[in-house]
What does this fold into?
Amino acid sequence: MSWKSDNEMVLAIRAPKEEIASVVADVPSLPQWNPAFSSVGKRNKDGSWPVSVHKVVSGSIRCEIDGNVVRFAIDIPGLVERSEFLLEGVSDDVTRVSHRVRQTGPLSALIGDGEARLVPGKRLARLARVVEKERMPQ
It folds into this structure.
C-alpha cells in the first residue's frame, strides 16, 4: 500500500517513558489530548474501539504496545492512518518521543501535505503539556 503522507517529529518530554506510554496507550482518554477524537466508545470484542472524529465521521482505532513503541491503526471512511510513538529514555525523567504518522485515502488528499506535516508535532506538543502538567506538584 502506498501512503499519501508520511511524517515524523521528535520531542523530548520531561517524564519517564512509562508515564508517557500510559497516557498514549489509554485509548478511552485520547480525546483529552487529541482533539481530533470527539469520543471513544467501549472496547469491542475484536480489540478495537469505536471512535468519532471531529463529531463528523465514525470509525475504529486499535492500539498495540510493542516494547518501547505504541502503535495505532485508525480506520475511518476515506482515511487510513497508521502511527506510532517510539519512546526512548534519555534520563530518569526525560524521554525522547518520536511520532510517525502515515495516512492514505481520499481524506488525506483533502487534509493536504502542508497540514499533514504538522500533525506529529501538534500531537507531541499536546501530549507533552498533558504529561508534564500531571507531574507538577499540586
The longest strand covers residues 79-91.
